[in-house]
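Z., the sequence and structure:
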Amino acid sequence: MSDSAITTQGTTLHIEGSAASAEVLTAITVGYPTILAITGHAGVANGDVVTLAGFTGADAATLNSLTFVVKNYATGATNDTFAIDVNTVGKTITIDAGNTTATPTAWIKVGEIKAINNTPGTAPDIDVTDLDSTRKEYKVGLPDSGSISIEFFALDSDTGQAAMLAAYDAQSTKAFKVTYPSGSTPIRTFNASVKSFPDIANSITPDGVISGTAELKMSGTVTVS
């Protein structure tokens, strides 16, 4: 095995919970990416989803009331700053001291997971063949991020499984994150809907345990942080 290969044991899956406490931002550096300052990162961590509020300036709407994934960049980020993947080059956005905030999502770990299986998305072919074509011609369409199948030991008391079931019942889209146990880019954050969730065990046998499989349909892009 390659020395650089990342082992999968210890990988975790979290689902979005309720909002955590708002953290005060102290500075902004416009550009791409946009760099935000927060003392000691406070309650914000890499891979978190944050909702921003309280910015001022002519282009404050570029950030206010919107959600972004926290990322650290090799250049421009320090222990007291984090980056968001939004282009604010040339924008007029300022901090309102004490009132500009980032409110992170509280994460709920999904427990008792046996396996996480990804089905990659694909980009469709768009037929652009016309009467001058000598063979079929295509353009690549908008890519699909795919889906994830979660195999788990079913446990009604597990708060993460309960949150997935609630999302399935509500037909709502939630933020999720998969965290690898090691590696230089261990966190994948994405939005997904719970497309299926078992009402009854996959298989019930004399020597079995209660287990199930849920499917997440991913929406939009995956942010690596």
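The chain has two domains: 18-105, 109-224. The first helix runs from residue 159 to 170.

Let me know what you think.
H.
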